[in-house]
Design goal:
about 400 residues, Nucleoside Triphosphate Pyrophosphohydrolase, Transcription Regulator spoIIAA, 8-stranded mixed sheet, 4-stranded mixed sheet
Length: about 400
Amino acid sequence: MTPQPATSAAAAGSAPASTKSTTSIGITMNGTSLQAEWSLRDLVHQCNNVPSSLESWITQLNAPLNLCPTDVGHAFLTVDNVRVGLLTPPVAMALLEHPHAFERVSQTQVALKRPAVDASASVHADPDARVELTRSQWIAEIVEQWRTFNDGTQLRFEALMGWRDELYPVYGKGGSLAFTVERAASGLLGVRTYGCHMTAYTLPPGTAHPHSNLHLWLARRSLTKPTFPGQLDNTAAGGLPVTRSSTGQPVFQRPFECMVREAHEEASISESVARSGIVAAGAVSYYQRQEHLPSLGGIAGPETQYVFDLQVDEAFAPEVNDGEVHGFMKVRVDEAMQLLKSGQFKPNCAVVLIDFLVRHGYITTDNEPDYLEIVHGCHRPLEWEFPGPRWSLLKD
């Protein structure tokens, strides 16, 4: 796609309206009428709306199903007795059609089996690595069958329409790789996924107190994106995939490397600028029930987004470099807050921006009554529910 010039904040009103139905309050930004209807607490809650007790929640979901003792309902997906995902009944039953790979442990647990491995195999001397590769192959074969369901005339699950030919990692005990799965199928398995988001901002030279001077660069998503078309996004963002070597070994992309790549692909930021300027700023985690995207098929999507900041000078302007982004706009903090409250952001991008504004001192205990709930909601400790990677111990 031909690079497009950055747009002004006045273009903010051109995004599709939020589908949330509430009484709204009209506000104006640079002559553009916006609809204020979301609190910051609302925005965090829409991304972190799964109850803290997963067992009680699963029981509540299964209660109306009148399950027989041998049935399976909404269920945890486990690997070596560690929870790695949540399944809806149709997906759980579809997995159990492959008894070589999956077994029903109870009404609320489906386990991915541990394969027997050939101790004499020359590829992957590490038995655990061979187990992971076999499990990943099982998953790939099953998902491919779902994709070519009914002699290839239809998809078994609508979520697979978004097939990416990209693998997402799923981690198990001790933060080790449990298996990989096609990105489009990750929502079906309800596994924890990972991404990287960057916020570029500018401060005028010599600024003593930045609160009235900081500007943010926001991206507007492509109008043809299958999810959240035309909504606002962070400056650059992307999923965190894993690839395979010629021998099947996993090759991990570290969060910083992912962010450098996405900054170039989406915002035309050179590698030298990215590597010298991008600063790791932590992570946000949340657990989202995907009622707004029923086609994904999963009960809920636990996600972790590694967040990065990039301070740029006033002459900087990102440029569109692929089909993911429609354009960019530069806004003041108060304008960004108005855009947040008018529901114009992709939900998880709103959480990333809120986290940025907390870290930089714009959302405080003095101006936000729900401050603690907002901060905690941006950082749900998912390791208590599903394990994540331990990057310093992972080997490519």
